[in-house]
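Friendly challenge for the regulars: who can give me the structure tokens for this chain first? No prize, just bragging rights.
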Amino acid sequence: MGNLEKYNFSDFLLSNYRKILEIAKENYSFTDYFNSKNVKEIILRHDIEFSIPIALRMAEIENELDISSTYFIQLHSEFYNPFELENFESIMKIISLGHSIGLHFDVHFWKIKDENELEKYLEIDKSTLEKYFGQEIKVFSFHNTNDLVLSFEKEKYAGMLNVYSRYFKEEVGYCTDSTGYWRYERLEVRIKEAKDNKLQILIHDGMWQDEVLPPRRRIFKIIDERAKYLKKFYDDTLKKFGAKNIDWEEIL
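First reply, four minutes later:
Bragging rights claimed.
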């Protein structure tokens, strides 16, 4: 068996994402982190890691299916800047589609060593996100968990719900596509069996594409597309402001 079959590469198509959600709706209601109705429920969560454009496409699919989810935004990502105009407008569009935003918090950026530092820097990032997007940030997730990060198990820090708290670890089912393959169990199987009374699903934008690719190539595709976008942005900006765009033999 090759990696294509072993890791179910064909699952991670945007067209299949719609299919999975349609199956989920047959067995579950969708809720958020604050409005449980004590029925069979899914909390759908996105940690935006690589591509806000793909996150927006997923938000549009969910909106078409009358599903709301929570999109967790990084402030210190190496892959995107949420305050870049196009990304900022896309996040505002995600909000306008009826979704919520949360903070995807990077402990490693701040070199946090204990809970006091965690509270301090969560407050900084929370405040920044709220000021830019005009939304109260009520919930956060951790980026790149390790033993230290997973030891922060209180229900709330800095006034925000911690989705890695002991409650979510012990009382709520969990399924994720982290690093581009299903952890624990294939999501389609999990929702068809519907054994969980409450299930948290974690989705990572860049792991979903329009073509079948291994996880590494999915991310490289995003990087390459980003490079093309920046080259065009540079050329278009110089043209817009009437500046010379000088290459080896030509001036554009």
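The chain has a mean pLDDT of 97. The two ends are 51 Å apart (CA to CA). Your move, everyone else.
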